[in-house]
Amino acid sequence: MKHHIITETSGQPDRVFGSSAFTDVIFARHTSGRRSAAAKPAAGKLEIRVCAPAVTPSQRLRIVGSCPALGNWDPACARDLDDTAFPEWSISLDAATLPKYFEYKFIVVARDTQQLLAWEEGENRRFNHFCNSDEALTVEVAPFVNPIRWHGAGTAIPVFSLRSKQSFGTGEFPDLKLLVDWAVATGQSVIQILPVNDTTCCGSWRESYPYKANSIYALHPHYLALHKVGKPKDAQVCKRFEALRRELNALPTVDYERVDALKHEYLRIVYAEQGAAVLASKPFHDFFKKNAAWLKPYAVYSVLRDRFATADFSKWGEYAAIDEARIDAFIAANEEAVGYWFFLQYHLDRQLRDVRDYAHAHRVILKGDIPIGISRTSVDAWLTPELFRMDSSAGAPPDDFAVKGQNWGFPTYDWGRMSADGYAWWQARFVKMNDYFDAYRIDHILGFFRIWEIPCNAVNALLGHFNPAMPLTVGEIHAYGFPFDAARHTAPVETSDDVLFVEDPQQPGHYHPRIAAQFTDCYNRLAWYEKDAYNRLYDDFFFRRHDAWWRGEAMRKLVPLVSATRMLVCGEDLGMIPACVPDVMRELQILSLEIERMPKNTGVSFGNPAGNPYLSVCTPSTHDMSNLRLWWNEEPESSRKYYYEVMGRSGEAPQDCTPEICEWVLRRQLASTSMLTIIPLQEWLAIDGGLRRANPAEERINVPANADQYWNYRMHLTLEELLGATKFNDRLRALISESGR
Question: Is residue 550 part of a domain?
């Protein structure tokens, strides 16, 4: 029997609904037996196959068409397609009952009631093929786009902020299972967390900053649940640690230094007693074989960091530079010391994978976070220094939350070197992320277009410049009518930020306009016509000169990265946004971030959630912002404006953000046109006067302008108590359901 396969003109692949977040989790078909997508139809059969990942488990896809075999356009007579090879659907038709030419469409019906929910939009599909009785024909048609748009809700909270009865003074990976249970109870589909990579450098609380990892692969021992690793043999030791656990777990915030120190003390005891057996086991050998490429240098780095009492590898003498041969030699000479870090990463991997599997079983996706940078004293900088520009620091230009910009302290990337192997370093980073997550947030996605690069000796982040960029020549500056004088308008970056231009460190004699220069004394001393010329130069440089170039840069980097896995991709696209960013994100189907208090349209104080793009994440706040209640108190002028203009209220505005106001705001976010509305846990709790924290200032996670922020916010009630708040949970479920999410 001959089997012919015809692939018709296909539409654009649906990266969003074709992501593992939907096909493997939210929309997954949990069937006992799955039909192979490559199975052949019988002779005389016409098989139609269509990729339709956006059809939910509560829906069914049917085909209806212009011939009797397809119901003569009567939806009541439509034929069911089979979804056992989901996201592919198929139907096998008797070719003898079909004309050579017919037209058809797909329709969506409710799986339980068979109620018609939607017709496929657009022109009719057309079939014009012939199948003999002794042949089989498979036609792979263009993907189906569900006209019913799915919307989901979720919760954002750092893992360290979780509190359970079992945790050791901080949130731990197994606590996420309780959060999954709560998500299910309230009708949510997403749990979003902050980065969970190891940040350990010297044991200081400053390492609580989760965006400065010492490894793009290693998980932080901070999140390890001790009782799931093992128990020491000595009963008195167990009793002592149980008392310490209770003490630390009762604290209002995370005591980062004590928690980490005591966890390592406990884990070294367990490792001494059980480590050899674990490291000799088959499960460990399987883990090691898969992860050895990063695990070995990470373990050696960790031993040397502790031995030299610094993560600054330039101070490690003969180990200041490293290669694979020296790593292997060090491991051979220090098996027990290195083995401890193998032991920890093995257990961290097991615990987070267990959470992932639990979330999958409950149709909840875990959304991770990929920081834009890494620590300049990280394993990655030590092992592959050629990939980084160590003489500069990454950050962000000024915004409403950090008027002097941000200096994050980590090196920028040498994108030229990274491109030589197709951005393998980045691809490997995304692939490792896929071990635990089905969605991720790219922190500061603007950095893939251009990064704010600050000389390491600059007095502050205002003296940075975008890289890549085309700095201006003196002749170009004069062409705008500005009388440039280097002595008057520039200064060494280590001395002053009262300048109008910053000289490019790689191209002497070429200049970048200083960001926010209009607020300097140097600008105020200009004549009116000089200000006019400078403003024209400034606007052209920052908002027009580089747009096409930055688009090309982003496409060159992001295409191989988002294609490295099937995870759902979201981007944090806040700040000084080049005009090309929205187009690139739409083209690559990367969800944008939409915050009502940070409108992307100029000339407005607040965004309109009802006008958000569908491929976006809507949220009232992020970990870098004040929560609603705190904002209401700290910015009374803005909050009153919101009360009168957005809420449409009259009379005297409440002094505090009441539960009723908080609920009104959350309803507005849930009713947005965004695919996802993800609410910080603090904001969910704010709608209940009995559950929310008394002081909203204690719920602030981070102040971006504060370089010494202690990231130690913790829930004030346990997850068990949250799960037990049935009345609140039912209310939340109703809010989410009523919004269509």
Answer: no
CB-based contacts of 258, cutoff 8 Å, min separation 6: 169, 248
**pLDDT (tens digit, 9 = 90+) per residue, 503-532?**
999 999 999 999 999 999 999 999 999 999
The Cα 14–Cα 18 span in angstroms is: 5
The residue among 715, 638, 547 whose CA lies nearest residue 159 is 715
H helices of 362-490, in order, are 379-383, 415-419, 424-433, 474-479, 486-489
pLDDT of residue 33: 46
Shared domain for 94 and 216, answered yes or no, is: no
Kindly list the distances between the CA atom of residue 353 and the CA atoms of 195, 213, 359, in Å, as whole numbers in the listed order.
16, 20, 10
The verdict on whether omega for the bond into residue 232 sits within 30 degrees of 0, i.e. cis, is no
Domain stops at, among 117, 141, 165: 141
Q: Which amino acid is at 80?
A: D
pLDDT tens, position by position, 245-295:
999 999 999 999 999 999 999 999 999 999 999 999 999 999 999 999 999
Q: How many residues does the chain have?
A: 741
Q: Considering the domain boundaries, does residue 149 fall inside one?
A: no
Q: What is the mean pLDDT of residues 633-642?
A: 96
CA dist 135 and 629 (Å) reads 69
d(CA 666, CA 678) in angstroms, rounded, equals 10
564 vs 289, 388, 431, 445, CA distance in Å? Answer: 21, 22, 7, 16
- For residue 6, the model assigns a pLDDT of 82
Return the CATH number at 44. 2.60.40.10
- Summarize the chain as % helix, strand, coil (round to 5): 40, 15, 40
Q: Does residue 148 fall inside a structural domain?
A: no
**Domain boundary, last residue among 383, 416, 445:** 383
The model's confidence at residue 32, banded by pLDDT at 50, 70 and 90, is very low
Same-domain pairing of 108 and 205? no
Task: For the chain, give the percent of residues with pLDDT over 90.
Answer: 91
Nearest in space to 233 (alpha carbons), one of 184, 285, 272, 180:
272
CA distances from 278 to 148, 283, 346, 399 (A): 50, 8, 9, 50
**Residue bearing the bigger pLDDT, 376 or 131:** 376
Partnered with residue 110 across adjacent β-strands are: 59
- Beta pairing partners, 369: 441
Q: Is 119 helix (H, G, I), strand (E, B) or coil?
A: strand
Q: Indicate the pairing of strand 592-595 with strand 125-128.
A: unpaired
Residue 396 CA to residue 16 CA, distance in Å, equals 29
Q: Is residue 422, in this structure, part of any structural domain at all? A: no
Q: How far is CA 411 from the centre of its chain?
A: 21
C-alpha span between 312 and 388 (Å, rounded): 15
Q: How confident is the model over 5-14, as pLDDT tens digits?
A: 888 866 677 8
The token duo for 336 is 């027990």
Mean of pLDDT values over 613-629: 97
Hey, what are 493's tokens?
A: 């970056």
* Burial category of 112 from C-beta neighbours within 10 Å (exposed 0-12, middle 13-18, buried 19 and up): exposed
Cβ–Cβ < 8 Å for 159, 172: yes
Which tokens in the block code for residue 700? Answer: 């602030």
∠ CA 554-558-564, nearest 5°, is: 170
- Residues forming a β-bridge with 513: 501
- Backbone phi and psi for residue 721, each to the nearest 5 degrees, phi listed first: -65, -40
Looking up tokens 């090196």, which residue turns up?
Answer: 411
Range of the domain at 109: 2-141
CA distance 120 to 146: 7
Q: Which amino acid makes up residue 258?
A: R
In the chain, the number of structural domains is 4
